[in-house]
Predict the 3D structure of the following.
Amino acid sequence: MTHADPLPPTACPLAADVVLLHGFMGAPWTMLTMGRALRKGGFTPFCPWYESWAQPFDTIVDRVSTLVAARRLGTERPVHFVGHSMGGLVARALIDRLAPPHLGRTVMLGTPNAGSELADFCARLKMLRPILGSASPALVTRRTLPALDLLGPPHYPLGNIAGNRPLPGLLHKLMPRPHDGKVSVASTHLEGETDHIVLPVSHGIMPFDRAVQRQTLAFLATGAFRREDNLNL
């Protein structure tokens, strides 16, 4: 597959679409406040729903790619991708599948690019294994999933946001620190990423957090996160 050249990292027009991809066991409403922030920033968000628990990863990618293609996103103006948790993995596969002619930038929020240690724990215990459903091959650290494993380093500007302030819980002691309660900071890294930042936020709160929203806007607009103490985007 021949990939389109990404937009320059410092000159990305704001008149662009953004595909918002919710996380495991999530729904479009979990990306609602992020969508509002993006719309205020001049972007047009589109948040498709996918069944993250019952459908295999390949089926999810098939379904979402059909929805994105039907809207012709990325064919006439830039299209960006913002994925929370598992949604970031879906974004990687979507970009590879669709190769949008006007590919913009991608932001991942707490995405387990190297897998989730908490998913490993659930997968090892028979009584907890059903929690992961069909998503298990995509979420564990020792995965063999062609839809992801065959992808090379990102050929587009990619910003990763990780969290390091988990909510209280006993299972958190099973994870390497720092982590956001479900994904370690180390696991969010992806070879070839453009920028990476760690914020004091827990995994599930990320799409709702104003600092995360501001950093997402900053990366989509400029290709880099802003590390000033006071962000006024």
